Protein backbone atom coordinates (compact mmCIF):
# COMPACT_ATOMS: atom_id res chain seq x y z
CA UNK A 1 0.00 0.00 0.00
CA UNK A 2 1.32 3.41 -0.90
CA UNK A 3 1.77 5.63 2.17
CA UNK A 4 0.73 9.27 1.55
CA UNK A 5 3.36 11.99 2.10
CA UNK A 6 3.36 13.69 5.49
CA UNK A 7 2.43 17.02 3.91
CA UNK A 8 -1.05 15.59 3.45
CA UNK A 9 -1.47 15.46 7.22
CA UNK A 10 -0.34 18.98 8.05
CA UNK A 11 -3.69 20.47 8.69
CA UNK A 12 -6.26 20.60 11.46
CA UNK A 13 -9.49 18.81 10.62
CA UNK A 14 -12.75 19.16 12.54
CA UNK A 15 -13.50 15.49 12.99
CA UNK A 16 -10.02 14.14 13.17
CA UNK A 17 -7.06 16.34 13.90
CA UNK A 18 -3.53 15.71 12.77
CA UNK A 19 -0.93 17.89 14.43
CA UNK A 20 2.51 17.75 12.87
CA UNK A 21 5.65 19.68 13.55
CA UNK A 22 8.10 20.56 10.79
CA UNK A 23 10.52 17.78 9.90
CA UNK A 24 14.16 18.39 10.63
CA UNK A 25 16.51 18.77 7.68
CA UNK A 26 15.53 16.44 4.84
CA UNK A 27 14.53 13.72 7.27
CA UNK A 28 10.85 13.00 7.60
CA UNK A 29 10.10 13.10 11.29
CA UNK A 30 7.21 11.40 12.81
CA UNK A 31 8.14 10.93 16.39
CA UNK A 32 6.13 10.62 19.43
CA UNK A 33 6.36 12.46 22.54
CA UNK A 34 3.81 12.64 25.09
CA UNK A 35 3.56 10.55 28.05
CA UNK A 36 1.87 11.36 31.28
CA UNK A 37 2.63 10.39 34.77
CA UNK A 38 0.35 9.90 37.67
CA UNK A 39 -2.18 12.27 39.06
CA UNK A 40 -4.22 11.94 42.15
CA UNK A 41 -5.44 8.84 40.43
CA UNK A 42 -2.16 6.97 39.96
CA UNK A 43 -1.07 5.02 43.03
CA UNK A 44 2.55 5.20 44.10
CA UNK A 45 2.36 1.46 44.67
CA UNK A 46 1.63 0.92 41.01
CA UNK A 47 4.56 3.07 39.94
CA UNK A 48 6.96 1.02 41.99
CA UNK A 49 5.47 -2.18 40.62
CA UNK A 50 5.76 -1.15 36.98
CA UNK A 51 8.98 -2.74 35.88
CA UNK A 52 10.44 -1.70 32.55
CA UNK A 53 11.43 -4.97 30.91
CA UNK A 54 13.76 -4.32 28.02
CA UNK A 55 12.55 -6.14 24.92
CA UNK A 56 15.25 -8.14 23.20
CA UNK A 57 16.46 -6.36 20.09
CA UNK A 58 15.50 -8.26 16.96
CA UNK A 59 18.15 -8.69 14.32
CA UNK A 60 17.77 -6.36 11.38
CA UNK A 61 17.54 -9.42 9.15
CA UNK A 62 16.18 -12.56 10.78
CA UNK A 63 17.05 -16.03 9.53
CA UNK A 64 14.14 -18.40 9.03
CA UNK A 65 15.08 -20.27 12.21
CA UNK A 66 14.46 -17.08 14.23
CA UNK A 67 10.95 -16.40 12.91
CA UNK A 68 9.15 -18.31 15.68
CA UNK A 69 11.12 -16.62 18.45
CA UNK A 70 10.53 -13.23 16.86
CA UNK A 71 6.81 -13.86 16.73
CA UNK A 72 6.79 -14.69 20.43
CA UNK A 73 8.67 -11.48 21.18
CA UNK A 74 6.20 -9.46 19.13
CA UNK A 75 3.19 -10.81 21.03
CA UNK A 76 4.01 -10.98 24.76
CA UNK A 77 1.62 -12.37 27.32
CA UNK A 78 -0.46 -9.52 28.84
CA UNK A 79 -0.45 -11.43 32.14
CA UNK A 80 3.06 -10.08 32.74
CA UNK A 81 1.37 -6.83 33.82
CA UNK A 82 -1.24 -8.39 36.09
CA UNK A 83 0.35 -7.11 39.31
CA UNK A 84 0.50 -3.55 37.98
CA UNK A 85 -3.14 -3.71 36.86
CA UNK A 86 -4.17 -5.12 40.24
CA UNK A 87 -2.45 -2.17 41.91
CA UNK A 88 -4.56 0.23 39.86
CA UNK A 89 -7.72 -1.66 40.73
CA UNK A 90 -6.86 -1.70 44.42
CA UNK A 91 -6.22 2.04 44.39
CA UNK A 92 -9.52 2.66 42.58
CA UNK A 93 -11.44 0.66 45.18
CA UNK A 94 -10.08 2.87 47.95
CA UNK A 95 -10.10 6.24 46.21
CA UNK A 96 -12.27 8.32 43.95
CA UNK A 97 -11.09 9.58 40.60
CA UNK A 98 -11.84 12.96 38.98
CA UNK A 99 -14.76 13.24 36.58
CA UNK A 100 -14.22 14.33 32.98
CA UNK A 101 -10.52 13.72 33.40
CA UNK A 102 -7.73 13.72 30.87
CA UNK A 103 -6.53 10.12 30.81
CA UNK A 104 -2.95 9.23 29.86
CA UNK A 105 -2.39 5.58 29.05
CA UNK A 106 0.38 3.54 27.47
CA UNK A 107 3.94 2.42 28.06
CA UNK A 108 6.88 3.76 30.09
CA UNK A 109 6.86 7.11 28.30
CA UNK A 110 3.53 7.65 30.05
CA UNK A 111 4.62 6.05 33.31
CA UNK A 112 7.59 8.40 33.68
CA UNK A 113 5.73 11.57 32.73
CA UNK A 114 4.59 13.71 35.65
CA UNK A 115 1.36 14.43 33.86
CA UNK A 116 -0.59 15.83 36.81
CA UNK A 117 2.12 18.43 37.40
CA UNK A 118 2.67 19.11 33.70
CA UNK A 119 -1.00 19.67 32.86
CA UNK A 120 -2.37 21.32 35.98
CA UNK A 121 -5.15 23.04 34.06
CA UNK A 122 -7.06 19.75 33.80
CA UNK A 123 -7.88 16.85 36.12
CA UNK A 124 -5.48 14.10 35.10
CA UNK A 125 -5.40 10.34 35.50
CA UNK A 126 -2.27 8.40 34.55
CA UNK A 127 -2.57 4.72 33.78
CA UNK A 128 0.72 3.96 32.08
CA UNK A 129 2.25 0.59 32.82
CA UNK A 130 5.78 -0.58 32.21
CA UNK A 131 7.02 -1.41 28.74
CA UNK A 132 3.55 -2.31 27.52
CA UNK A 133 2.54 -2.90 23.92
CA UNK A 134 -0.50 -1.41 22.20
CA UNK A 135 -2.31 -4.74 22.22
CA UNK A 136 -1.75 -5.00 25.96
CA UNK A 137 -3.28 -1.59 26.57
CA UNK A 138 -6.33 -2.75 24.61
CA UNK A 139 -6.38 -6.02 26.56
CA UNK A 140 -6.63 -4.10 29.84
CA UNK A 141 -8.98 -1.37 28.61
CA UNK A 142 -11.68 -2.52 31.03
CA UNK A 143 -9.28 -1.80 33.89
CA UNK A 144 -7.23 1.21 32.75
CA UNK A 145 -9.47 3.16 30.35
CA UNK A 146 -13.19 2.52 30.37
CA UNK A 147 -13.96 2.79 34.13
CA UNK A 148 -12.97 6.47 34.17
CA UNK A 149 -15.17 7.69 31.30
CA UNK A 150 -12.53 10.36 30.60
CA UNK A 151 -13.13 13.60 28.72
CA UNK A 152 -10.21 12.66 26.43
CA UNK A 153 -7.59 9.93 26.13
CA UNK A 154 -3.90 10.42 25.33
CA UNK A 155 -2.23 7.22 24.17
CA UNK A 156 1.45 6.45 23.71
CA UNK A 157 2.48 2.95 22.65
CA UNK A 158 4.08 1.15 19.73
CA UNK A 159 7.69 1.87 20.62
CA UNK A 160 8.28 -1.40 22.47
CA UNK A 161 6.17 -3.30 19.96
CA UNK A 162 8.41 -2.45 17.02
CA UNK A 163 11.59 -2.98 19.04
CA UNK A 164 10.31 -6.49 19.81
CA UNK A 165 9.73 -7.28 16.14
CA UNK A 166 6.18 -6.16 15.40
CA UNK A 167 5.66 -4.69 11.93
CA UNK A 168 4.33 -1.22 11.11
CA UNK A 169 1.14 -2.77 9.74
CA UNK A 170 0.61 -4.80 12.90
CA UNK A 171 1.07 -1.73 15.12
CA UNK A 172 -1.35 0.23 12.95
CA UNK A 173 -3.89 -2.60 13.24
CA UNK A 174 -3.36 -2.68 17.01
CA UNK A 175 -4.19 1.02 17.17
CA UNK A 176 -7.38 0.37 15.18
CA UNK A 177 -8.29 -2.37 17.68
CA UNK A 178 -7.76 0.03 20.60
CA UNK A 179 -10.01 2.61 18.96
CA UNK A 180 -12.71 0.02 18.32
CA UNK A 181 -12.55 -1.19 21.92
CA UNK A 182 -12.93 2.34 23.29
CA UNK A 183 -15.61 3.34 20.78
CA UNK A 184 -17.78 0.39 21.80
CA UNK A 185 -18.28 1.99 25.23
CA UNK A 186 -17.17 5.63 24.78
CA UNK A 187 -18.20 6.60 21.23
CA UNK A 188 -17.75 10.34 21.73
CA UNK A 189 -14.45 10.37 23.63
CA UNK A 190 -11.57 11.99 21.72
CA UNK A 191 -8.44 9.86 21.38
CA UNK A 192 -5.05 11.57 20.95
CA UNK A 193 -2.24 9.36 19.70
CA UNK A 194 1.31 10.52 20.37
CA UNK A 195 3.58 9.50 17.54
CA UNK A 196 6.18 6.84 18.19
CA UNK A 197 9.27 8.75 19.17
CA UNK A 198 12.77 8.56 17.72
CA UNK A 199 15.56 7.65 20.14
CA UNK A 200 19.25 6.87 19.94
CA UNK A 201 18.78 3.46 21.52
CA UNK A 202 16.27 2.38 18.88
CA UNK A 203 17.44 4.41 15.91
CA UNK A 204 17.77 1.25 13.77
CA UNK A 205 13.98 0.83 14.11
CA UNK A 206 13.16 4.39 13.10
CA UNK A 207 12.16 3.60 9.49
CA UNK A 208 9.60 1.07 10.75
CA UNK A 209 8.41 3.51 13.39
CA UNK A 210 7.94 6.20 10.73
CA UNK A 211 5.92 3.77 8.64
CA UNK A 212 3.69 2.95 11.63
CA UNK A 213 3.27 6.64 12.37
CA UNK A 214 2.20 7.36 8.80
CA UNK A 215 -0.37 4.58 8.89
CA UNK A 216 -1.80 5.70 12.23
CA UNK A 217 -1.84 9.34 11.11
CA UNK A 218 -3.92 8.29 8.11
CA UNK A 219 -6.36 6.48 10.39
CA UNK A 220 -6.71 9.61 12.48
CA UNK A 221 -7.23 11.75 9.38
CA UNK A 222 -10.11 9.53 8.29
CA UNK A 223 -11.61 8.80 11.69
CA UNK A 224 -13.89 10.70 14.01
CA UNK A 225 -12.51 12.37 17.11
CA UNK A 226 -9.01 11.01 16.49
CA UNK A 227 -5.94 13.22 16.69
CA UNK A 228 -2.39 12.37 15.72
CA UNK A 229 0.30 14.46 17.40
CA UNK A 230 3.77 14.39 15.88
CA UNK A 231 6.50 15.56 18.22
CA UNK A 232 9.39 14.09 16.28
CA UNK A 233 10.93 17.38 15.20
CA UNK A 234 11.06 18.48 18.82
CA UNK A 235 13.31 15.50 19.62
CA UNK A 236 15.57 15.65 16.57
CA UNK A 237 18.45 18.02 15.89
CA UNK A 238 19.17 19.95 12.70
CA UNK A 239 20.87 16.84 11.27
CA UNK A 240 17.72 14.81 11.75
CA UNK A 241 18.98 12.58 14.55
CA UNK A 242 17.80 12.29 18.18
CA UNK A 243 18.97 15.02 20.56
CA UNK A 244 20.76 13.08 23.30
CA UNK A 245 20.36 16.00 25.72
CA UNK A 246 16.61 15.28 25.79
CA UNK A 247 17.05 11.66 26.89
CA UNK A 248 18.26 9.78 29.94
CA UNK A 249 21.61 7.99 29.78
CA UNK A 250 19.89 4.93 28.27
CA UNK A 251 19.16 7.08 25.17
CA UNK A 252 15.63 5.66 25.18
CA UNK A 253 13.58 7.35 27.90
CA UNK A 254 12.96 11.08 27.96
CA UNK A 255 14.40 13.34 30.65
CA UNK A 256 12.70 16.46 32.04
CA UNK A 257 13.79 18.58 29.07
CA UNK A 258 12.50 15.94 26.66
CA UNK A 259 9.11 15.93 28.32
CA UNK A 260 9.04 19.73 28.32
CA UNK A 261 9.62 19.69 24.56
CA UNK A 262 6.72 17.29 24.13
CA UNK A 263 4.44 19.31 26.37
CA UNK A 264 4.90 22.39 24.20
CA UNK A 265 3.60 20.44 21.20
CA UNK A 266 0.82 18.61 23.03
CA UNK A 267 -0.69 21.39 25.15
CA UNK A 268 -2.40 23.32 22.31
CA UNK A 269 -4.01 20.10 21.10
CA UNK A 270 -5.33 19.29 24.56
CA UNK A 271 -6.70 22.79 24.79
CA UNK A 272 -8.95 21.92 21.87
CA UNK A 273 -10.04 18.41 22.81
CA UNK A 274 -10.71 19.33 26.46
CA UNK A 275 -13.10 22.18 25.63
How would you sum up this structure, described in words?
This protein is of the alpha/beta class and 275 residues long. The protein has a single domain (6-50, 80-273), classed as SGNH hydrolase (Rossmann fold). It is built from 12 helices and 6 strands. Strands 1-6-5-4-2-3 form a 6-stranded parallel beta sheet. Helix 10 links the parallel strand 5 (191-194) and strand 6. The longest helix has 18 residues, at 168-185. It starts with 15 loop residues before the first strand and ends with a helix. The model is unreliable at 1-18 and 20-73 (pLDDT under 50).
Biggest sheet: strands, sense, closure?
A: 6 strands, parallel
Order of helices and strands: EHHHEHHEHHEHHEHEHH
Structural class computed from helices and strand pairing: alpha/beta
The termini sit apart by 36 Å
Low-confidence stretches: 1-18, 20-73
Radius of gyration over C-alpha positions, nearest whole angstrom: 17 Å
Mind sketching the topology for me?
Elements: E1 16-19, H1 44-49, H2 67-74, H3 82-94, E2 102-106, H4 108-111, H5 115-118, E3 124-128, H6 134-139, H7 141-144, E4 152-156, H8 159-163, H9 168-185, E5 191-194, H10 206-222, E6 226-229, H11 232-235, H12 256-273
Parallel strand pairs: 1-6, 2-3, 2-4, 4-5, 5-6
Short descriptors:
six-stranded parallel β-sheet, Rossmann fold, disordered N terminus, single chain, 275 residues, 12 helices, alpha/beta, 6 strands
Summarize the structure.
By secondary structure, this protein is an alpha/beta fold. Helix content is 39%, strand content 10%. It has one domain (6-50, 80-273): Rossmann fold (3-Layer(aba) Sandwich).
Amino acid sequence: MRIPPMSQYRRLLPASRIVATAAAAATFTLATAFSPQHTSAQPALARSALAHPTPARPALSRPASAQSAAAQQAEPDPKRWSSAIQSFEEWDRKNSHPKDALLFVGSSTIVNWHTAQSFREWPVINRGFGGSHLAEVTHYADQVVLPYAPRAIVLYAGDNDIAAGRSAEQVSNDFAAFVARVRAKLPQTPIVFLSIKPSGARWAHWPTMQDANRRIAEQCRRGEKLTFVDVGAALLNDRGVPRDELFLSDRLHLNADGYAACERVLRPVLGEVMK
